[in-house]
Amino acid sequence: MKRNGLGMLAAVLGLTVALPAVAAEADKRQVNQQQRIKQGVKSGELTGREAVRLERQHRALNREIRQDRRDDGHLDAAERARIDAKQDALSRRIARQKHDGQSR
Asked: Residues of the signal sequence (predicted)?
């Protein structure tokens, strides 16, 4: 019985440590995407209109993440999956706009 209790404690502790790490991954991706947009503007790969549009989409996703966390204090699996899909889409849009051959 004692061994089973220790196993449960270890599992709960592992989940408690892993959940913030998963939420932090969304934050890291947002920072990375913001840097990609800034780099694209600096290098001339993004026009002003493209950068404004991507920044607006980036801010909207940040608001959504904050709102999801504000609702119950954390991101559940469905919220993380939805946010991850939106981050993937934004990442593709950034790449497409940076490599579309337009320059400022």
From this structure: 1-23
